[in-house]
Write a structure and sequence with these properties.
The complex is a heterodimer. Chain A is mainly β. Helices cover 0% and strands 50% of the residues of chain A. Chain A contains no helices and 11 strands. In chain A, the strands form 2 sheets. In chain A, strands 2, 4, 5, 6, 9, 10 and 11 form a 7-stranded mixed beta sheet that branches. The termini of chain B are far apart. Helix content of chain B is 0%, strand content 54%. In chain B, the strands form 3 sheets. In chain B, strands 2, 5, 6, 10, 11 and 12 form a 6-stranded mixed beta sheet that branches. Chain B has a 4-stranded antiparallel beta sheet with strand order 3-9-8-7, with no helix packed on it. Chain B has no helices and 12 strands. Classes of the chains: A mainly beta, B mainly beta.
Chain lengths: 112, 116
């Protein structure tokens, strides 16, 4: 099992550009999550999904969009990149709402 | 509102010494509690979790944590630290979202350095 995979590992964007961060899991988990990690700030929830076709906002959703067309994939879209979106992004999944979350290796994004 | 506080931003210990990382939480109901470890450039790995039952929880890599409801704490301990334990450690509390869906609220983390 690969677990949770994320691509790319690192990306530099110019202000105003768009990109999609990819996340996939092969554990047949229903729940998937996107977090961002800023230095000294822990992890903040951006969006989450409780199953294919169902998504909802987390704590810091502004500037992001998600979709969940399959159980396996949960891409995160940045439409107009801003310097404030410079961060490390983690995708996670869990079987149920109260279950352990499994994390991907992260995507480091730099917006200049 | 739910919150997690890790009072120590950075801790340095000598290899072989004991370790205790502090975690305090604020949550209105019985919490789900987690400790995760993050090695440099890596994602988060679960060390241990508490859902219910025995308040002393054993985890991987020789770590344990004790849930103390009266102190709203879930401190992580290890009797003898190894150089490979140098990493960042995150405490998290599971909070119910609308509809009963769980989310994790993370502390800011404690960075552990180990001297040889």
């Amino acid at each position: 099992n690969a677990g949770v995979t994320q691509t790319p590992k690192f990306r530099i964007l110019k202000i105003g550009q768009s990109m999609t961060l990819q996340c996939a899991q092969d554990m047949n988990h229903n729940y998937m999550y996107w977090y961002r990690q800023d230095p000294g700030m822990g992890l903040k929830l951006i969006y989450y999904s409780v199953g294919a076709g169902i998504t909802d906002k987390g704590e810091v959703p502004n500037g992001y969009n998600v979709s969940r067309s399959t159980t396996e994939d949960f891409p995160l879209r940045l439409e107009l990149a801003a310097p404030s979106q410079t961060s490390v992004y983690f995708c996670a999944s869990s079987q149920g709402g109260g279950e352990t979350q499994y994390f991907g290796p992260g995507t480091r994004l730099l917006v200049l | 509102a739910q919150s997690v506080t890790q009072p120590d931003i950075h801790i340095t210990v000598s290899e072989g010494a004991s370790l205790e990382l502090r975690c305090n939480y604020s949550y209105g109901a019985t919490p789900y509690l987690f400790w995760y470890v993050q090695s440099p450039g890596q994602g988060l790995q679960l060390l241990l979790k508490y859902f219910s039952g025995d308040t002393l929880v054993q985890g991987i890599k020789g770590f344990e944590a004790e849930f103390k409801r009266s102190q709203s704490s879930f401190n992580l301990r290890k009797p003898s630290v190894h150089w490979s334990d140098a990493a960042e450690y995150f405490c998290a509390v599971g909070a119910n979202l609308i509809g009963g869906y769980n989310k994790l609220i993370f502390g800011a983390g404690t960075r552990l350095a180990v001297h040889p």
